[in-house]
Structures are given as C-alpha cells and as structure tokens.
Write a structure and sequence with these properties.
Elements lengths: L11 E5 L5 E6 L9 E8 L4 E14 L2 E6 L2 E5 L2 E6 L2 E9 L4 E6 L13 E6 L4 E12 L18
Length: 159
C-alpha cells in the first residue's frame, strides 16, 4: 500500500477506562487517500493482552494491510506469529478476517533514507483487495495461549 499522509490528523473519537476493556478509538481516515473511512481501536483486554482492530471502508477495492515494526525475531505460522527478543516472548493472533495470514517484510527504504537496521515489519496479508475490512490482531506476552475476546464493531466498543 501507499504511505500515510504525514500531515494528517488522527482524532480520538471514543474511549473508556473500563478495567475489563479499556480502549481508545482513533479516526485515521485523513492519513489514507484511497479510503473513505479508516478507524483503529486499541483495547487492553485484561491480563497481559492488547487487541488492535482496524476497520477500513473504501470507494473501491484496496490492498489493506496491518503492520507493526519490531526489532524482535519473528516466526510466522499462518494466523499466528511469535516474536522473541532477549528471552521475552510476544505472541500475535489474527482474529479477523478469516483466511488472513502473517508475513514479514523489509523495513529498509531506498537510499538515502535511514535503513532501519535490525528491524522487520510484521504484516497481516489479506487474500484479496477489499472495499471494506475488519482486521483484528490480539497481542499477548508469554508462552501460554489465551482465550480471545469477542470481536465487535468499533462503534460498539464504548456503549
């Protein structure tokens, strides 16, 4: 996909401090020219887990991609990824959409830009271009698997 508009504003549109589901929702629509709406929710779901959920709407099909840059070692296995760094483990699981998979891509841009040595980008790849999508990724620390939260529209996060 294309880079974000660096001059765009991303207002916070919702949030709550509920101890079982503390969350914030931002409107990132202005950062992406090809979409009509792009919202991101981040929730602490209890314990040591975080849910990151993007909702994208576009006037025509776009290649939607979720990603995060890390200096950890990354192992991708379908809808799951394991990140390790200095003995610490962070796990990731794609909760939505079905069929999406993790992959890694280089973070090195063309010269003369900073080459981002020692990093990689963990991405969620969708099978096809979409005009709407909900990409939900659960992150948690440690070796144990955890029960995933229910996936709800961002509009229902703060009720």
């Amino acid at each position: 996909g294309s880079n974000q508009n660096v001059d765009a504003r991303a207002p916070i549109v919702a949030g709550t401090q509920n101890p079982d589901f503390a969350c914030i929702v931002t409107d990132l629509s202005a950062a992406y020219d090809a979409v009509s709406s792009m919202k991101r929710g981040i929730a602490l779901t209890g314990g040591n887990a975080a849910l990151i959920q993007d909702e994208i709407k576009a006037p025509e099909a776009v290649d939607a991609e979720w990603g995060m840059v890390t200096s950890a070692d990354v192992l991708c296995e379908g809808d799951r990824a394991r990140l390790t760094l200095d003995g610490a483990v962070l796990q990731a699981r794609i909760l939505s959409p079905d069929g999406a998979v993790f992959d890694t891509v280089s973070t090195q841009p063309p010269e003369p830009e900073d080459q981002n040595e020692g990093t990689v980008k963990l991405v969620v790849r969708l099978a096809d271009a979409v005009d709407s999508a909900r990409i939900a990724v659960l992150l948690w620390a440690g070796e144990e698997d955890i029960w995933p939260p229910e996936i709800r529209p961002l509009a229902d996060w703060v009720t």
